[in-house]
Design brief:
By secondary structure, the protein is of the alpha+beta class. The protein is built from six helices and eight strands.
Length: about 230
Amino acid sequence: MKSTFALLLVLLLFVCASAVQNAPAQSAARTDVYHVHFAKATLGKGAEEGDFLKQTDPNQAMPEHRIVLRHQSGEDWDYAVIEHLGTKATITAAGTPTPAAARDLNAWHSDTFVNGPAWPEFAKQMGLDDAAKSAGSVYVVAVFRAAPGHRDQLEKSLAEPGSGTAGNVLLQHLEGSPWHFLSVSRYSSWEDFAKGEKADVANTSKPDSGWLGVRTHSSYHNDTITDRIAP
């Protein structure tokens, strides 16, 4: 009798552990507003544009709450800047004028307001809570447009992290560009990125894989591999 009870207890613990391990990832509550800026530098001005975008605006309430990523492979933009604005954002008629010296550095750009987790969670996932230790991180920036009637399913699919990631953030469109979600996945190193890509390839054909999920529920998406230049 005791041995039967012990066996049942072991089986129960195994089932519970398996359920926790295989439970779908939960996105952090999207309580805060972020500004997403994609920028393409003028021909021959890539370095100067990057130096300009790294500068913080002292007039902002939280000028250090930002990350600047530099294109390595993927979409046509050169830089992505994600700025934390707090729980709400205000746009004024005066706007944010670009300094005269920087006007000719930019060929084109796009701006989108999104919601996402509170800054401490964003910073933790992106390795900004200890920027010195995460200096070698690799970031994959991806945007997604849901197929009609598939928005919830796409969000659920995107909540599943890729293999080998050290941090993940999923941001949702509020106003701006014609996409619904922006995900940023962080890998601790290029080596971890390569290992993660290799592991994910093996799961490509699985019915519940992220690869098939995106193609089932998304009408458009693109991915860009980047490194971080600020902070």
